[in-house]
Amino acid sequence: MYNHKNIETSIEILGNLVQYPVLGGESNTSIAGYITDYLKKNKISYSTVPNEKGDKMSIHCRIGPNADGGIILSGHTDVVPTEGQPWTKPDFEITRSNGRLYSRGTTDMKGFLACCLTMVPHLKKIPLSKPVYLAFSYDEEVGCLAGPTLIKHIKETYEEKPRFAIIGEPTSMKTIIAEKGVAFFKTQVYGQAAHSSQVRRSVSAIEEATYLTQWLLNKMDGFIAEGNIDNRFDPSYTTIHIGKIKGGTAVNIVADYCEFYWDVRNIPSDSIEKIERSFQEFCLERIREKKKSFPAFNIITTAEFPIVPGLDTPKTDEVVKLVNSFTGKESFETVAFASEAGQFSKEGFSAVLCGPGSMEQGHKADEYIEITEMNKCLHFLDELVSWCKNDKIK
Ligand SMILES: [Zn+2]
Known about the structure:
This protein is of the alpha/beta class. Helix content is 34%, strand content 22%. A hairpin with a 6-residue loop joins strand 1 (46-50) and strand 2 (57-63). Zinc ion binds at residues 76, 108-109, 140, 169.
């Protein structure tokens, strides 16, 4: 693919963006300041959606008329840590080598942000019949925490109704129509300490935790046995996984406390809410049973962050046709990772993922994006802009 005329500008912007080492969970005012300065310089009015503490903010703006049916380009400003990874290149500085751009965040997903920002001054000059929106969030990497407030703010800010949302996560510029949802939970079990010889005269938090974890694993096996299968995903069923467990004091003491962490990644036909509800019902049964003899017995399950809904956009949806017309490919694939796409979809936007780079290189040491991927994305955005001009699919 030939170089896009703005490729060097986009690489320069990417070089600026990666120098803000904002990790998920941290304040993003530095990188947000860079982006808002850039928008100001280009005379684009924008809105910020700060968190309660005021140390993080999402940013959104509209370029073009206040007409219904526009396209939102969505991305996140945070990245995952590099600590403990064997980096051979600087982790928060661009290294250009062999057609690749190395640094944390290049593929996930500042490459996309850089391409979007590159387009801004050009977009400004063109008379558009449909608007383009930029929507940049924070804390995506720690549970898509800012997505819901950003989306709500977008709906409240604009009188017109944007119709499409393209989430520029690294998909090698393929159109992704479905992804699993995800939720992380912590379950705490409070038992009663005693000498181990007295185990049946007390209540072991570890023993109770094993019943609870077994219930969760049976639930997953039940889905498979009942044929709740969606072959678009690998694995093709809803998974429930216990990732961490801690409890007890010594081999001869009945454990008074045990906690475990578990996650659910659901195919669209299963519901995380339903799984959580039936688990809570089972816990309530155990509490009722045990409280009769041990009033202090308790089980508390809390979500680590609000459930991130999956994405299940029908392949016949207009957004698929539209985005495929921009990429020039006939694709509708699925991915295993979760993103803000499901949150946009839940709020009524036709959403797909499509962005430069591959998740193969995301979250790893020596993360990189191929310059050809940046080129592809800039060409993609050209197509998008010409659609916004003419409002017609070629
Ligand atoms: Zn990402």
